[in-house]
Write a structure and sequence with these properties.
By secondary structure, the protein is α/β, with parallel strands linked by helices. The chain has nine helices and 15 strands. The radius of gyration is 18 Å and the shape is globular. The structure holds zinc ion (2 copies).
Length: 305
């Protein structure tokens, strides 16, 4: 089985162990409930019930060494790292709660958590930070991020768009450039190639068509793909902006990938849902999405690489 819900922590230093990827959050940058939203259908009801959905984030666990990496440093970094520790049976890490961070782009839900690595909170030491060259330059030249670099709390390991790097033997990451609103950094998707499986993480993209063959390139050789599901079909946006949805709606992605999902049920897993996305709460909609072979990512789910 490719995906499993993982309630039971695993031993850390298991010799037969491999590499696992965990979902630690699945909301758009602002999470759910969303500051400034009082709609009953999404955020008012969530506030009343205490429901919290944190921004899209994955954790990677190298079971042989116990090493942990985060993909995205979200504003919920403390809760997400705690969840990763609990899911992997990790304890006693102190001020090195993780061994590195990979970040797709400089939008608040994806990188503000880096601030928690600084002197006011974890004060990490030389934590490897895998970001694009442009993103690394932005961090080095703008406060408050510059201080993290100057104090040696993070150590940028810049990659070129399209570049590949290795996290450990047998775990290669490919950074694929995707079109997005790139004010401070460019934006990438990460393809994680482990010993037996490959997982794609593409939480934010403006359109599948702007780069030739992008969707095919992203999905090439991939066993499980976490894809941008910010909006369902545009009904969740005000009329005036509906014509310019800045993300491919789920309905469009499902049409494009209908054949792939039918032959690989559960392999396409939606992530980065905006607080207004009806797929959060509409049970009938969920059933219809799953009947077509697609899934919504579940916090805590695990994919073995
Ligand atoms: Zn985002
Ligand atoms: Zn973004």
């Amino acid at each position: 089985m490719l995906i499993s819900a993982c309630a039971n922590p695993r031993p850390v230093a298991d010799r037969s162990a491999g590499i696992a990827v965990y979902v630690l959050g699945r909301a758009q940058d602002g999470g759910l409930p969303h500051l400034g939203c009082e709609r009953e259908a999404c955020c008012a009801a969530a506030r009343r019930s205490g429901r919290i959905e944190t921004p899209a984030c994955l954790g990677i666990h190298d079971e042989a060494s116990g090493a942990l990496w985060l993909i995205e440093a979200t504003p919920a970094i403390e809760a997400q790292v705690a969840r990763l520790h609990s899911l992997t049976g990790t304890s006693a890490r102190g001020r090195r709660p993780i061994d590195g961070v990979l970040v797709t782009h400089a939008h608040l839900g994806h990188y503000l958590g880096l601030a928690w690595l600084g002197r006011e909170v974890a004060a990490t030491s030389a934590l490897p930070l895998f970001v694009s060259e442009r993103f690394a330059e932005y961090l080095r030249t703008n406060g408050p991020w510059r201080q993290l670099v100057e104090l040696g709390q993070v150590e940028p390991r810049p990659f070129a768009p399209g570049g590949r790097f290795t996290l450990r033997d047998g775990l290669e990451v490919e950074a694929i450039a995707v079109p997005h609103r790139d004010e401070f950094s460019d934006t990438v998707a990460f393809k994680l190639r482990g010993p037996t499986r490959t997982v794609l993480f593409c939480p934010d993209v403006d359109a599948w068509d702007r780069h030739d063959g992008l969707l095919e390139r992203l999905l090439d050789d991939v066993d499980v793909a976490y894809l941008d599901a910010t909006f369902y079909d545009g009904r969740e946006l005000p009329e005036r902006v509906r014509a310019e949805i800045p993300h491919p709606p789920m309905v469009d992605t499902m049409t494009r990938l209908a054949a792939f999902a039918a032959s690989h049920p559960g392999a396409i897993r939606f992530i980065h849902l905006n607080h207004t996305n009806p797929a959060w709460n509409d049970a009938a909609l969920r059933v219809s999405i799953e009947a077509r072979g697609f899934s919504i990512a579940e916090p805590g789910e695990r994919v073995r690489l």
